Amino acid sequence: MTTQIPKPIALIMGSTSDWPIMKQASDILTEFGVAHKSQVISAHRTPQLMYQFAKNAHKKFSVIIAGAGGAAHLPGMVASLTPLLVVGVPIVATPLQGFDSLLSIVQMPNGVPVATVAINNATNAALIALRILAINNPDFLQKIIKYQKELQKKVLNSKIQTATKESVALAVAVTAPPHLASYSEKKQATAKKSKSSHKTIKTKSKSTYK
Q1: 208 or 45: whose pLDDT is higher?
Q2: How far apart are CA 101 and CA 110, in angstroms?
Q3: Rounded distance, CA 125 to CA 69, Å?
Q4: 22 by DSSP, 3-state: which?
Q5: Between residues 207 and 198, the one the model is more confident about
Q6: What is the Cα–Cα distance from 116 to 123, expressed in whole angstroms?
Q7: What digits encode the pLDDT tens for the residues 113-141?
Q8: What is the tally of structural domains in the chain?
Q9: What is the pTM of this model?
Q10: Cβ distance 41 to 49 under 8 Å?
Q11: Which residues, at least 6 apart from 173, have a Cβ–Cβ distance to it below 8 Å?
């Protein structure tokens, strides 16, 4: 069932390589039955196209979700040219693992806002857009409430096997930092030595009394 909104949501990205991440947003919008359009627009390679899109976006779209990696100027530049809400998605594209993208998008000057989500989290970008659109749409709001309840059910229905003492000890040995692991090993060795000494003393004491 398609949810009626005034205008579709725009999904834009700097490169086709960003699509695997931006598809998360598309999947959420599809799940909610919200019309949206995806397009590749590069702030650096197609600046004229970006300008034309941003200047006219309010005539065609209700919200813009913009994903970009590296220098990631696309969300900020589009936000400077449109009155629409822009939700920025930092995408991993360089050896800096998305930290460069995050800073490029989140550090906007006063007066030019971009709602920025976590690195590679296009799902939350879509949910932010949907919550904004739900303000004046009671039916749509109910869909979001239902979505939240489904998330709650997943957590409440999740099961974790009870770990045995042996598996916990093994997990500590494998995952603990070196200084903690060595401390644990020393403690076990000391306890073992103490137990052994106790047996020896007990044996000697028994033979003496005989």
Answers
A1: 45
A2: 19
A3: 15
A4: helix
A5: 198
A6: 12
A7: 999 999 999 999 999 999 999 998 888 89
A8: 2
A9: 0.75
A10: yes
A11: 181, 184, 185
Sign of CA pseudo-dihedral 125, 144, 53, 77: negative
- Residue 91 belongs to some domain of the structure: yes
Q: Which helix (H) or strand (E) holds 141?
A: helix 138-157
Tens of pLDDT, residue by residue over 163-180, are 555 665 655 555 555 555
Q: Rg of the chain's alpha carbons, rounded to an integer?
A: 28
State whether residue 38 is helix, strand or coil. Answer: strand
**205 occurs within a structural domain:** no
- Is residue 9 within a helix (H) or strand (E), and if so which, with residue range? strand 9-13
Shared domain check, 120 and 98 = yes
pLDDT at 72: 97
Q: Are 144 and 131 in contact (CB under 8 A)?
A: yes
**Which stretches does DSSP call E strand in 26-99?**
36-40, 63-69, 85-91
In a domain, 132, yes or no: yes
- Rounded to whole angstroms, the Cα distance separating 139 from 130 reads 12
13-27 exposure pattern, b = at least 16 Cβ within 10 A, e = fewer = bbbeebbebbebbbe
Burial 134-170 (b: 16+ CB within 10 A, else e): beebeebeebbeeeeeeeeeeeeeeeeeeeeeeeeee
